[in-house]
């Protein structure tokens, strides 16, 4: 199992001022429980890692540094020998402590991510848990499973606002690089902000959704809740006007111009996706 590599500092020779120091301790654990009997059958106990790094900046400039996205194999040793297919509940936990220092005129944003826990944590100490279900056929074992543990941080010089400098910077295409089969298109227009989702239904069919317009200014670290609609009728060349049906809801949280998290909850289930910008405007006021 590879050790967590330290956060990398980009080698800009012109950097002249120290901006921030960040140290993060992240402890992860997973427990498997047989669903019908509520018997614990495997998993791994709390395993902790420390991730450290620095950001340097030139005056009135923005720079960032982030860790490599590390995928680790954790031994689980879960076997089904019951003679029939069994259902299991998986409980994941991420405990974290974030320490950071920065100059008075700077804001430092820190992100810690542990897959399959998709929530982004940014401050202090705490714990995040999630549960999922799966099944194993008879005489099938899960020896180990890969999980992603990563962190990143960014330093902003002279920026003391959670509001986007220019709302036009919302425009662009976002995705999760580790799950490239779906994505989002962000559009700002005269009626507000609209999100398009392109993915698949629970049974593998194409799923295209459109949000209701969001008319308020978009701020970092603010949850945007929007209804999502699906056009479920019509044929090629002959759409059915007014056939939009409510699919569910979307909760979007941006942590900066290029990263965020979105939760889709509707007809096909619930997923949480960590967003990265894939395509944006050629001219942007974002750092």
Task: Give the helices and strands, then pairings.
Layout: E1 17-34, E2 39-57, E3 63-66, E4 70-80, E5 86-102, E6 106-115, E7 117-121, E8 125-136, E9 140-157, E10 172-176, E11 179-189, E12 192-200, E13 206-211, E14 224-231, E15 234-235, E16 238-239, E17 244-254, E18 259-266, E19 269-280
Antiparallel strand pairs: 1-2, 1-5, 3-9, 4-9, 5-8, 6-7, 6-9, 10-11, 10-19, 11-12, 12-13, 13-14, 14-17, 15-16, 17-18, 18-19
Overview of this protein structure:
This protein has strands at 17-34, 39-57, 63-66, 70-80, 86-102, 106-115, 117-121, 125-136, 140-157, 172-176, 179-189, 192-200, 206-211, 224-231, 234-235, 238-239, 244-254, 259-266, 269-280. It is mainly β and 287 residues long. The protein has 2 domains: 17-157, no CATH class; 167-280, Calycin beta-barrel core domain (Lipocalin, Beta Barrel), CATH 2.40.128.20. An 8-stranded antiparallel beta barrel has the order 10-11-12-13-14-17-18-19. Strands 3, 4, 6, 7 and 9 form a 5-stranded antiparallel β-sheet that branches. The protein starts with 16 loop residues before the first strand and ends in a 7-residue tail after the last strand.
């Amino acid at each position: 199992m590879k050790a967590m590599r330290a956060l990398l500092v980009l080698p800009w020779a012109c950097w002249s001022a120290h901006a921030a120091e960040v140290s993060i301790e992240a402890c992860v654990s997973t427990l498997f429980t047989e669903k019908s009997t509520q018997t614990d059958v495997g998993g791994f106990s709390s395993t902790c890692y420390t991730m450290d790094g620095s950001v340097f900046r030139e005056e009135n400039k923005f720079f960032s540094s982030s860790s490599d996205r590390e995928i680790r194999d954790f031994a689980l040793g879960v076997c089904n020998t019951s003679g029939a297919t069994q259902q299991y509940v998986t409980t994941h936990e991420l405990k974290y402590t974030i320490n950071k220092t920065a100059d008075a005129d700077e804001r430092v944003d820190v992100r810690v991510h542990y897959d399959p826990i998709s929530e982004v944590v940014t401050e202090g100490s705490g714990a995040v848990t999630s549960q999922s279900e799966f099944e194993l056929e008879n005489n099938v074992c899960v020896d180990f499973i890969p999980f992603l543990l990563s962190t990143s941080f960014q330093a902003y010089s002279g920026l003391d606002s959670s509001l986007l400098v220019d709302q036009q910077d919302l425009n662009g295409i976002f995705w999760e690089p580790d799950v490239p089969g779906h994505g989002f298109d962000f559009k700002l227009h005269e009626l507000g902000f609209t999100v398009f989702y392109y993915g698949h239904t629970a049974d593998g069919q194409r799923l295209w959704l459109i949000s209701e317009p969001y008319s308020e200014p978009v701020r970092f670290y603010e949850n945007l809740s929007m209804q999502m609609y699906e056009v479920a009728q019509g044929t090629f060349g002959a759409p059915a006007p007014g056939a939009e049906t409510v699919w569910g809801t979307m909760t979007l949280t941006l942590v900066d111009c290029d990263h965020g998290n979105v939760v889709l909850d509707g007809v096909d289930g619930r997923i949480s996706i960590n967003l990265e910008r894939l395509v944006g405007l050629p001219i942007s006021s974002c750092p």
